[in-house]
Specification:
single chain; 171 residues; alpha/beta; Glutaredoxin; five-stranded mixed beta sheet; two-stranded antiparallel sheet; 7 strands
């Protein structure tokens, strides 16, 4: 009942939850953020630093998503299109699914098994997500060839600045 009242009040007063653009657009990562551990599909631990090292010298798009996130699922076709239109860059998918089982089911259900996927076993609140001001998903970041942040904040794979940043880095 409380939930219904809240939804009703949100509708009346036009309250909506959405991503809030960070006030500082960062260009690098803190030491703590780089040491944040994730898990790969086999359950092996890996740090953000190790992921970035694997892609050094390449342009990298980081896609934050989860199988329970309606906005993420609505964006998935355009995210796949962005990936298909940019075969010369790397993509990494960071899952905020709530459990290992949920992560595995999402990869299967949404045809993500053939991509580079990692899962935040620590949950949403962790050193990396806190550092990058992650307050909503989907979220996209572009990392340059030297592992610096070239595009800090995009909420849609259709954001024209995503492609513009990629194009600029490839010149």
């Amino acid at each position: 009942m409380k939930k219904l009242i809240l939804i009703f009040m949100m509708g009346i007063f036009g309250i909506s939850y959405s991503q809030k653009v960070p006030t500082v657009l960062k260009t690098g990562f803190s030491k703590e953020a780089l040491q944040q551990k994730l898990e790969d599909e086999e359950g092996k631990a890996i740090t953000i630093q190790q992921i970035l090292n694997q892609h050094k010298g390449k342009v990298l798009v980081i896609d934050f998503w989860a199988g329970w996130c309606r906005d993420c699922l609505n964006a998935l076709p355009k995210a796949k299109e962005l990936e298909e239109n940019n075969k010369n860059i790397d993509f990494v998918f960071l899952s905020l699914d709530r459990s290992k089982e949920g992560f595995e089911k999402s990869l299967e259900r949404f045809d993500m098994k053939n991509k580079e996927n990692y899962w935040f076993s620590t949950g949403w609140k962790n050193d990396f997500n806190n550092y990058v001001d992650l307050n909503w998903i989907p979220r996209y970041m572009v990392i340059d060839q030297k592992s610096s942040i070239a595009k800090y904040y995009a909420i849609s794979p259709e954001d024209p600045e995503l492609q513009q940043t990629i194009d600029k880095l490839l010149k």
